[in-house]
């Protein structure tokens, strides 16, 4: 059984935090390279806070995905593991706020220090853990609004968590930050359709699949092919995704220089995934769209020198139902 200890003095505390931030950076480098290269444009003191927030979200997501395999579908056991993790987080933050940090988990100590130092609203994490718990019971979303209800806690709220780290110059930056969180996650969903199907999950609206004549879960496996119907469906979702990026772009000017470069780099890199999906003729089943590491590094370097890119021109949605409600305002 792991024992709880109080690090010996300030030196022990600093060593624990240093190790925690180092591990958080490692997790970001391994699993979230776009975040990693974007954060590289921030001053070191703020960069580590991006790593800490990402690490917390990554570890929680791993519990839902990996522990579910260990538990062989026992959602009660996986839910208990997720709740225990959330409790450890809340305990660590409460202790940090009281000025009496305890514990021997370096990453959790770093996360708690970041939450308190940056003044991140703890309610954001309640919404986040709530969305993670949804993955244990919900595998399909009927409408775009239904999917946004899930992404409210799994994606939009990540933008809210990151915003205090970025030190915006106006409160009007909040909605664009939320939109960027949604845009990033929708990009992941479109890229990872095949992988999510293997987990028994579909993170695209069922009503849209029907509208375009796509059955991803067809018994004969025909749903996992880049048919004309699938290409039309995915083109529609990519256009919706770009509308979210366009809304997010309006917030870049509300960030100080280094933060604007950080967000601009991450935005460019993530949106390039959509370009690679298009270049592969919308086939996300036989290959995974990736932006190579060298391109991420050179993009970050270019933006560091030249500044964030000029927001692209908004384009109309393709396909049936080209109305604004298909890029609907997401629920709060």
From TrEMBL:
Region Disordered: start-end pairs: 307-332
CDD domains reported for this sequence: Trans_IPPS_HH
Cross-referenced InterPro entries: Isoprenoid_synthase_dom_sf, Squ/phyt_synthse, Squalene/phytoene_synthase_CS, Trans_IPPS_bact-type, Trans_IPPS_HH
BP terms from Gene Ontology: carotenoid biosynthetic process
Matches recorded under Pfam families: SQS_PSY
Pathway recorded for this protein: Carotenoid biosynthesis; phytoene biosynthesis
Gene3D superfamilies named in the record: Farnesyl Diphosphate Synthase (1.10.600.10)
Gene Ontology terms, MF aspect: geranylgeranyl diphosphate synthase activity; squalene synthase [NAD(P)H] activity
Keyword Transferase included in the entry's annotation: yes
Keywords attached to this entry: Transferase
Coiled coil location: none
Record protein name field: Phytoene synthase
Organism the protein comes from: Friedmanniella luteola
């Amino acid at each position: 059984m792991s024992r709880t200890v109080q690090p010996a003095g300030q030196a022990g505390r600093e060593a624990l935090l240093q190790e925690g931030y180092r591990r958080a950076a490692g997790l970001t480098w391994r699993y979230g390279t776009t975040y990693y290269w974007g954060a590289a444009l921030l001053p070191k003191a703020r960069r580590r806070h991006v790593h800490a927030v990402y690490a917390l979200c990554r570890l929680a997501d791993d519990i839902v995905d990996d522990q579910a395999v260990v538990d062989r579908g026992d959602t009660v056991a996986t839910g208990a593991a997720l709740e225990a993790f959330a409790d450890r987080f809340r305990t660590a933050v409460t202790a940090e706020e009281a000025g009496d940090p305890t514990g021997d988990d370096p990453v959790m100590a770093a996360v708690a220090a970041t939450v308190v130092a940056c003044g991140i609203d703890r309610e954001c994490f309640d919404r986040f853990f709530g969305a993670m718990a949804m993955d244990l019971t919900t595998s399909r979303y009927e409408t775009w609004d239904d999917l946004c209800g899930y992404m409210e806690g799994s994606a939009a709220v990540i933008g809210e968590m990151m915003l205090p780290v970025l030190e915006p110059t106006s409160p009007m930056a909040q909605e664009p930050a939320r939109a960027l969180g949604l845009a990033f996650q929708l990009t992941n969903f479109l890229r990872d359709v095949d992988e999510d199907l293997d987990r028994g999950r579909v993170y695209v609206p069922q009503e849209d699949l029907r509208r375009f004549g796509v059955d991803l879960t067809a018994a004969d496996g025909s749903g996992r092919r880049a048919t004309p119907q699938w290409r039309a469906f995915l083109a529609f979702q990519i256009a919706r995704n770009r509308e979210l990026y366009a809304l997010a772009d309006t917030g870049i000017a509300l960030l100080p220089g280094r933060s604007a470069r950080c967000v601009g780099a991450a935005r460019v890199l993530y949106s390039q995934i959509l370009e690679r999906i298009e270049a592969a003729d919308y086939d996300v089943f036989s290959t995974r769209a990736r932006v190579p590491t060298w391109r991420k590094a050179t993009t970050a370097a270019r933006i560091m020198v030249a500044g964030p890119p000029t927001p692209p021109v908004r384009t109309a949605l393709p396909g049936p139902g080209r109305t604004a409600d298909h890029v609907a305002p997401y629920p709060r």
